[in-house]
Design a protein that fits this description.
The chain has 355 residues and is α+β, with helices and mostly antiparallel strands. The chain is built from 12 helices and 6 strands. 69% of the residues lie in helices and 9% in strands. Strand 3 and strand 4 form a beta hairpin.
C-alpha cells in the first residue's frame, strides 16, 4: 500500500492508451511488412528432428550438417520456416506447407505425406537426408575427424496436414473466446456490467499486445502461443479483480457517496499497485530464468508469457480502472436519462388526470 494515495492514474488515461496503441501499431507494421511467424500447428507443414548426439555441440560439424540438410530440403522443392534450430543433441527443422512452389491442401495432402514419409521401396525425406549425410561423412574431412556416423533412425519427420491445422486454429480461437466470455459472465455476477466491460477491454489489450510483441520479436505462433494467451488471460484478470474488489468496497461505503469515480479508482490503484508490481516481478524472475536456461520449444511458450505478464500488469493498473470510470459515466448517463424519461411520463400522466 502506498503512503501517498494522491496518485492520478485515471487522469493520465490518454497517455497510457497512446502507449498501448503505439506498441499495437508497431506490431501491425511488422505483420504487414514482414508477416507473422505462423507455426506448422496452424499453417500445416513438417517438423524434422535429427538426433546426432555430440555432433550438435561441435560448431564445425553442426554447420556442415545444417547446410547439407538445408540443401537436400531445397533440392526437393520444400521451404524451411525460419532456420535450423539446434538444442542439446537435436537439430530441428520446420517446413512450410508448400511443395514444389504449390501450397499443400486437402487435395494433394496424401501425396505430400507419402513423399515425406516414404512409401514401399521409395525413400522418404528422412531417408534422403540420412543417405546424404552418410555420404558426406565419408567424404568430408571435418566429419571424418569427428568420427561422425549417421544411422538410419537418426532423422524423423512429423507431418501436420492442412485439414488438421485448420481445425486446430478454429479450436484455439473458440477456446480463447469461451475463456473471455466466461470471465465476462463471472465479473458481471460478482461485480457490475461496467466492471465486466472494463475487464474485457483490459484483456483484449493484453491479447493484442502479446500478438504485437510476438510479431516484433518474430516468435512462432503455434499451439503453445494459444496456451500462453489463455494463461495470461487468467493471470491478468486476477490482478484486475483485486482492484475492482477495492473499488466495489469503496462504492458501497456510504462515506464515499459524494466521491468522484476517478478518485475511487485512483485510491483502489494506490491500495493494490504494490501487490501487483511485486507479484509480477517475482513471477518474471522465475519465467526469465526459465527462458534463459530452457530449449527452443519451451522458449516459444515462455516469451509470450513474459510479454503477457508485462501487458497484464500495465492494463490492470493503468487501463482497467480508467475503463471502469468511463463505463460508469456512460452507465450513470443512461440511468439519468431513464429517470428523466420516467419523470416526464409521470408528469404527463398527472397532467391528464387533472384535466
Amino acid at each position: 500500500m502506498l503512503k501517498n494515495k494522491q496518485i492520478k492514474i485515471v487522469e493520465k488515461f490518454k497517455i497510457f492508451i497512446i502507449i498501448a496503441l503505439v506498441v499495437a501499431l508497431a506490431g501491425v507494421g511488422f505483420i504487414v511488412f514482414r508477416g507473422m511467424n505462423i507455426g506448422i500447428d496452424f499453417m500445416g507443414g513438417v517438423k524434422i528432428e535429427a538426433d546426432f548426439d555430440a555432433f550438435a555441440e561441435n560448431s564445425d560439424c553442426s554447420k556442415i550438417i545444417r547446410d547439407d540438410m538445408k540443401k537436400v530440403i531445397a533440392d526437393h522443392g520444400l521451404e524451411i520456416m525460419g532456420d535450423v534450430q539446434v538444442s542439446d543433441s537435436t537439430f530441428e527443422i520446420r517446413l512450410r506447407n508448400v511443395w514444389k512452389g504449390v501450397k499443400v491442401t486437402s487435395e494433394n495432402e496424401s501425396e505430400f505425406v507419402e513423399f515425406v514419409q516414404g512409401k514401399g521401396d521409395t525413400d522418404g525425406l528422412c531417408q534422403m537426408i540420412t543417405k546424404s549425410l552418410q555420404k558426406l561423412a565419408e567424404e568430408n574431412a571435418t566429419l571424418k575427424a569427428a568420427g561422425a556416423e549417421f544411422d538410419d533412425n537418426s532423422v524423423k519427420a512429423y507431418t501436420v496436414g492442412a485439414t488438421a491445422s485448420g481445425a486446430l486454429l478454429r479450436n484455439a480461437i473458440i477456446a480463447l473466446c469461451v475463456a473471455i466470455v466466461v470471465m465476462l459472465i463471472y465479473i458481471v455476477i460478482r461485480f457490475t456490467l461496467a466492471s465486466a466491460l472494463a475487464a474485457v477491454c483490459a484483456l483484449i489489450h493484453d491479447v493484442i499486445i502479446m500478438i504485437a510483441l510476438t510479431a516484433i520479436f518474430n516468435i512462432p505462433v503455434n499451439s503453445t502461443f494459444i496456451a500462453a494467451v489463455i494463461t495470461i488471460v487468467g493471470y491478468s484478470i486476477n490482478a484486475t479483480i483485486i482492484i475492482f474488489d477495492r473499488i466495489r468496497e469503496s462504492v458501497k461505503d456510504p462515506n464515499n457517496a459524494d466521491k468522484p469515480d476517478a478518485q475511487i479508482a485512483n485510491e483502489a490503484i494506490a491500495n493494490t499497485i504494490g501487490r501487483t508490481i511485486l507479484t509480477t516481478v517475482t513471477t518474471l524472475v522465475m519465467v526469465v530464468a526459465l527462458a534463459v536456461l530452457s530449449v527452443n520449444a519451451i522458449q516459444e511458450f515462455i516469451f509470450p508469457i513474459i510479454f503477457g505478464l508485462l501487458a497484464g500488469a500495465f492494463s490492470s493498473v493503468l487501463l482497467a480502472p480508467s475503463f471502469w470510470v468511463m463505463f460508469r459515466k456512460i452507465e450513470k448517463k443512461a440511468k439519468a436519462k431513464k429517470q428523466a424519461k420516467k419523470g416526464y411520463q409521470g408528469a404527463v400522466a398527472a397532467n391528464k388526470e387533472t384535466k
